[in-house]
Design brief:
Blueprint lengths: L1 H52 L6 H4 E9 L9 E2 L1 H14 L4 E10 L2 E11 L13 E13 L2 E9 L1 H8 L7
Parallel strand pairs: 1-6
Antiparallel strand pairs: 1-2, 3-4, 4-5, 5-6
Length: 178
């Protein structure tokens, strides 16, 4: 009887160890993926707050990959282009030239794997000219949605839609496209 009890305890212990070993990589993978997704979300928050809202270009190299592709952004002159870090920074500078007080507000943020989707609101005063759109000194409040893509912890590009019609209407232009 004692021998049978010891045998059952031994089998139970071996079964628990095997289960633990088999479950550990799955748990570890999910935990690593969750940590990576959380870091990606933090990178997007930093990008919108520090780079786009505060014009902090010193941290761009920490957040953005050497090649950044704008996969979809209708109405944006960089739509479909791949930018290097210098060009990405020039894009931010141009935006701050046109809207020196620009600010992005995050409405919602969702991450999954190597993608982070953010719905946002942009405010700013139109102080610089855009090709085909002279300075108006009017304030705008525009919403959009951007999906950022990551590789090796850096942002490699985005897919974006923006309420460009609302933007143009707020500036009081009739051209339909700035």
């Amino acid at each position: 009887m004692m021998n049978n009890l010891i045998r059952k305890c031994y089998l139970l212990s071996v079964g628990m160890i095997v289960s633990f070993i088999l479950m550990s990589p799955v748990y570890s993978f999910n935990e690593t993926q969750n940590m990576s997704t959380q870091k990606n979300k933090e990178a997007v928050i930093t990008l919108l707050d520090e780079v786009w809202s505060k014009d902090n270009l010193q941290i761009v190299d920490q957040l953005i990959a050497p090649q950044y592709t704008i996969r979809h952004d209708p109405g944006d002159p960089w739509d479909g282009k791949t930018l290097d870090l210098t060009t990405f920074k020039e894009r931010v500078k141009l935006s701050h030239h046109v809207f020196p007080d620009q600010k992005f507000y995050i409405e919602d943020l969702v991450g999954e794997g190597d993608q982070v989707a953010v719905s946002w609101r942009f405010t700013g005063t139109h102080k610089g000219s855009i090709p085909g759109l002279p300075t108006t000194n009017k304030k705008v409040n525009v919403s959009g949605l951007t999906i950022y893509y990551f590789k090796d912890g850096k942002i490699i590009g985005h897919w974006q839609v923006v309420d460009r019609l609302g933007f143009v209407e707020q500036l009081g232009t009739q051209s339909g496209r700035p």
